[in-house]
Amino acid sequence: MRYSLADVLPSVAAALGMDVHNPLGLRPNRDVVVLLIDGLGAELLARHRDIAPTLSAHVTTTLDAGFPATTAVSITSLALGAPCATHGIIGYSFAVPHAGTSRVFNALRWRLDSATGPDALTELPPEDLQRRRSRIQDLAAHGVDVHYVIPGYQRDSGLTRAAFRAAGTVHPAADLDQVRAGIRAVADHSGTGRRFAYAYFADLDVAGHLHGPESPEWLRVLAEIDSAVADLLTDLPAECTLLVTGDHGMIRADTVVDLDARPPLHRGVRTIAGEARVRHIYLENASARSDVFAAWTEELSTAATVLTREQAVDEHWFGPTPPDPVVSARIGDVIAVAEDHAVLVCPAREPLESAMLGHHGARTADEQFVPLIASR
């Protein structure tokens, strides 16, 4: 049986003394730190054991990131211990009700229309858009001292508020040295009180998007991460368990499909959201469903799998539990999931994303599988 990112925090809670199921079998300990390396895919790591010998030597299992394999979804699934069909952050971007109609909402940046559009914190409060209780709230209620080792911009971001939903001590960490220092500070205490820390590092994902996964730039960042984790494994006390994982892997695009340049894909379509590997297509009218489905299936026959919302829900693409009506409405009427190394780009609205070399979100092993690396 393969476990998922949603199994990590329930196991952490058990290791920290809560009477809950421990799917990963973590041993009890005083402190636990979960370090999320953005873009750390299990398949990518396995191909570069020579670059990252410490990470590779401490892999205990492989996890499914969940679908779609993208940061906003994965972080929320990690924090809540549940897939996106439950928590409702169902993609990089998706449609939400707004002022009597609907608009595209970017969940990673918490903005409307695009990654650079108007800030949505006021109009779409994170605690309202994602209402489920997080596992970190449960830890805090159990008396665990919560810490965050994260970049300063994430402290009060919409995604942080939506996913974690619990106050804690913040250790600002913009680079690997600060991540190491923050994690060490969490574990540097002699009392018996229990501590949990969520730590995050983005540079591997950035290098992959800009230069491609497995590029020299990407490999350099991977080597730096490996060195930092080796230091932590040496320095952290036995009373602190360090877990390292990723939110998704990545593929390098080799086939670019420009959705903006294909008029048949826009007939009957109100808007297109998601990202280059997973597209949510929303209809102007429900009666257009069969025509839109047929057009997308024909146009993308060699580049993507096309399915309806109902098919995706019935086949549990977004998780085993059916979404409630609010979450279901966020899923595209039609969904296009890129195959192999194809990308489905929308350059007019997403110029930066469309120019990237590395992408993720779909269901290939390189995107879906992430390692779980443990100190104990």
From TrEMBL:
- Protein origin, superkingdom: Bacteria
Ribonucleoprotein as a keyword of this entry, yes or no, is no
Q: Which InterPro entries match?
A: Alkaline_phosphatase_core_sf (IPR017850), Phosphodiest/P_Trfase (IPR002591)
A Pfam family of this chain: Phosphodiest
Where would one find coiled-coil regions in this protein?
Answer: none
One term of GO molecular function:
hydrolase activity
Q: Which UniProt keywords apply?
A: Hydrolase
Q: What's the name of the protein?
A: Phosphonoacetate hydrolase
Instruction: Please name the source species.
Output: Nocardia africana
